[in-house]
Amino acid sequence: MICDNISVNEKGHLTFAGCDTVELAEKYGTPLYLMDENKIREHVRCYKNAMQKHFPDGSLPEFASKAFSCRQIYRIMAEEGIDIDVVSPGEIYTAASAGFPMENSFFHGNNKTDADLRFAIENKVGHIVVDSEDELFALDRIAGEYGINQKILLRLTPGIDPHTHKKISTGAVDSKFGVSIETGQALGLVKKALALNNVTLIGFHCHVGSQVFESKPFTDASEIMLKFIADVKEETGFAADILNLGGGFGVRYTEKDPVISYADKIAEVADIINKQCAALGIAVPRIMMEPGRSLVGDAGMTLYTVGSVKEITGYKNYVSIDGGMTDNPRYTLYESPYTVILASRAEDKKDFTATVAGRCCESGDLIQENVAMPKPRRGEILAVLTTGAYNYSMASNYNRVGRPPVVMLSGGRDYVAVRRESYEHLCALDE
Ligand SMILES: *Cc1c(COP(=O)(O)O)cnc(C)c1O
Fold it and tell me: What end-to-end distance do the CA atoms of the chain give, in Å?
């Protein structure tokens, strides 16, 4: 199996975190999101321990909320003692209302409105990651209105060419995110930030991409960021306290994805950062990383009930399920690979090939194509693996389909973290 929390029991049913998935589907109905709480905690501790071991004191992971946001995940992150990043007032509200200590949060986004900035200040967000000059001046003005001094980081683009690193596309100079080092605009912005009275610059942030299995994109980014930190120190005397390298380590969607140890990768990154800092003659700043997918991805699984099984003679087969792009739009958006297993008969021979289709009125509403499985029967349970990141958080109500519940699994126990959306919820805002 692609992750060690998945197995098959004596009934031939797929199990997840030690629980029988077919029984869970019966108990809660489908579609159903499952999350393995212990797997999430295991990943968080792995990052936290490795970062504290290899980087200077105070180095920590931040959970990138956008991968999976609900109150329970913030309670787990608070218990584990790591930071979070948030990208909207909705995420701020969710975290704050779950009791997350907001001084340990970082607010990102390429277009935070004045209202967003006010909301962040009112909710005592610890750090705002400023994305542009416009935002810097707006934040200084608004912080002044509140009579506070806001800690900030500046988001920079290290100018890493996305073509040299496939799947990486947010750290390039030509990006809607951040300020470019290469053009000199980043240094100009640092000088402006240092001259303002209502904000305090504490460091720099970059994010190079996602689903990365090597340390090189991070160390290429750190090389440029640390050189910048050294240049800034020389030019202005400002010594950055924090370098945030963003998120991005990958998870296994299929057997083709490599198995990596996040702890080993972090050790590799640390080793190179220590050498880079020594060569530049600067102290190693506190290092932050912002994993999203790699904390929650393989902690998730989605269960569906099989509906119609259609064999189009001479063409292909379609297995339709009771969910689709409304609970997992990632195949429709980017043809993301997933592993699909017939949970009801997980060990039967896979002698049938089919496209797994959703229930929405869109031909593109597919979950996966060319899936080998035993020929399913109406009413059987189908599982899609590694759906913990960017599934629930990207879900929609298209076709007025309610979002599935999120059930957490912990030590053989199951509990509801998010309830199923009812018809009343769907109409709650209609006049
Ligand atoms: C999306 C994002 C992350 C998380 O990326 P993952 O690939 O889920 O680890 C972290 N930081 C920023 C700024 C992001 O945009």
Answer: 49
